[in-house]
Every structure is written in C-alpha cells, then in structure tokens.
Write a structure and sequence with these properties.
- The chain is an alpha+beta fold.
- Helices cover 28% and strands 31% of the residues.
- The protein contains seven helices and twelve strands.
- The protein has helices spanning 2-23, 74-77, 89-99, 118-125, 205-213, 230-235, 261-279; strands spanning 56-67, 104-106, 115-116, 127-134, 142-149, 156-168, 173-188, 194-199, 201-204, 216-219, 223-229, 242-246.
- The strands form three sheets. Strands 1, 2, 3, 6, 7, 8, 9 and 12 form an eight-stranded antiparallel β-sheet that branches.
- The relative contact order is 0.15.
- The model has no long low-confidence stretch (mean pLDDT 86).
C-alpha cells in the first residue's frame, strides 16, 4: 500500500516542479557587466550661456567635414551593429528620427527650411540598380532585374558641421556653437566611378542635444569605465575635421576656387585665422 502511494505521489511532485519551472520567466537578460549603467540615461545637456546680440562684437561662420575613417573619429562610426545600448552616431540619429524626437531637413539648404519626414527620407535614400543575373534552374540563360537597396547607416563615412564662432564681450570669451549636422555618403556614376560626396539631410544641433546626451561614445583612453556622451564629444571638440567652406561674399566652397594642395592650404589658413584672431585679442 505504501509503495503504491509513493508511486502516485512522485509523478505528481515532479509534474508540479516542472510547471513551477516554466512559470519562472526572466524579466530581462542577465546584466552584461559588473554594475548597472543608469547614469547615461539620466544625463541632460549643459545649457548654453545666455547671449545677447549687443554682446557679440565679432562672428564668423565655418563649415567643416568630419571624416569618420580617421582614427580619432572612428568612435563616431562604430559599432556597425548595435550592441548593449551602444550605437554608432548615424544609427542614433536614424533611430531618433524614426521615434520622432529629431526632425530632419532637406539637404538642398543648410538653413533648415524644408522639414522631411522619416518615411520620405527612407524612400528618398533607397537606391535601385539594374543587374544581369543567371537563372538558377539554367545557368546558361541570363535575365535582367532591378535590385532595391535600402539605406545602410554604415555607408555614411563623413558628416558636415555648420558652426558659428563669436566673441562675447560680456564674458570676454571666444566661443563656437554647432548649428547643424549633415551626414554624407559616397556618390558614384553609372559606371561606378566616384563622383564626390552626397549630402543626405540636415539636422538642427540644438534640438538634438537631449538625444545625444543620453547616448554614449566609446572612449579610446579609458574604455567603458569612462565613456562620454555624444553631446560631450561635440561640446568639447573631441574630433578632427577640416574646413571646406568659409563664409564669403560669393557663397562658394573652397573646392570651387582651389584644388589639390592649394585647397588643403586654404583650409588650414581658415583654421589658423581663428587662432590668430583670438591671440590678437589679448596683450601681455
């Protein structure tokens, strides 16, 4: 009798343990690290200092290019695949545009005049290519088809910056503020030859600071223990760039009146003129 009761009780007990194990559903994946990273999600951008028109006694506008293939700029480009909340700069911008927290503007003007929706932008950045393929059932026969390629953030290698330098006499400081950012991709003709850089869209930087402050960039010096937000990187000027346009009466870029080494020297001249002006403000 005792043996029969035992044989009945054991299967019931095992079945209950099995149901209990299935009921234990994890709320999330295990923590990938030794501590919870919550500080970056609470970050807010440092507000700009108040500025009056009467206090600006000198200003100059420049347009720069950040080449993300340079070693110091590679943290903008990687990772190519998002991982553990860590995304590339372009991926952050695209995701924020999809969520509606960042507004994109047409690449036709850097004055932020023509807003573009996320769907319009994705449709515009799709590319079609006519190719000739072999039939899988008969490799001796070929057929023409059109392949649609969707936008890939890893295709963006450069970004443009539009920024203003000014001297504030109230605080006696020379300051620079970024106004806009424009991602660019390589442009090719029908033969596959490189034809320069193609701008995609503009975003207004002051509107993006809340998003950039909550996304971190990999720190090449201190690793994951001291990552900076993208807002910190831009505000602290922790990148390398070159000037491709300086405000002028003709509204033309450097490449329109100089080429090769002359264009590089002209770009360096525009950068050095800012340093020389700042140094000339003070006497010792």
């Amino acid at each position: 009798m005792k043996k029969a009761i035992f044989l009945v009780f054991v299967p019931v007990l095992l079945f209950g343990i099995k149901l209990n194990s299935k009921a234990q559903v994890l709320e999330g994946p295990p923590r990938d690290g030794v501590y919870d990273k919550t500080a970056i999600t609470q970050m807010l951008p440092i507000p700009y200092s108040p500025l009056r028109e009467a206090d600006v006694i000198w200003s100059k506008r420049l347009w720069r290019v950040i080449d993300m293939r340079e070693k110091i700029n590679q943290p903008f480009y990687f990772p190519m695949t998002p991982q553990n909340g860590w995304r590339s700069f372009i991926q952050i911008i695209i995701d924020a545009m999809k969520e509606g927290t960042i507004q994109a503007y047409s690449e036709l003007s850097d004055q932020f005049l023509y807003p573009i929706s996320y769907k319009e932008l994705m449709d515009k950045m799709e590319t079609t290519k006519k190719v000739t393929l072999k039939r899988p059932d008969n490799p001796d026969m070929e057929f023409d088809t059109v392949i649609t390629q969707h936008f890939n953030p890893s295709d963006v290698y450069k970004i443009r910056l539009k920024e203003d330098y000014f001297f504030d006499r109230q605080r006696s400081v020379m300051e620079v503020r970024i106004l806009g950012i424009c991602p660019m991709v390589n442009s090719y003709d029908e033969k596959g030859d490189y034809r320069g850089d193609k701008p995609l869209f503009w975003i207004y930087f002051p509107e993006c600071r809340n998003v950039l402050a909550k996304n971190e960039q990999f720190n090449l010096h201190n690793g994951s223990a001291a990552r900076l937000s993208y807002d910190d990187v831009f505000m602290k000027r922790m990148f390398n760039s070159y000037v491709y346009k300086e405000e002028n009466v003709y509204d033309r870029t450097i490449n329109e009146y100089a080429a090769g080494v002359d264009a590089l020297m002209e770009s360096e001249r525009a950068k050095n003129s800012l340093l020389e002006f700042e140094e000339s403000l003070w006497e010792y």
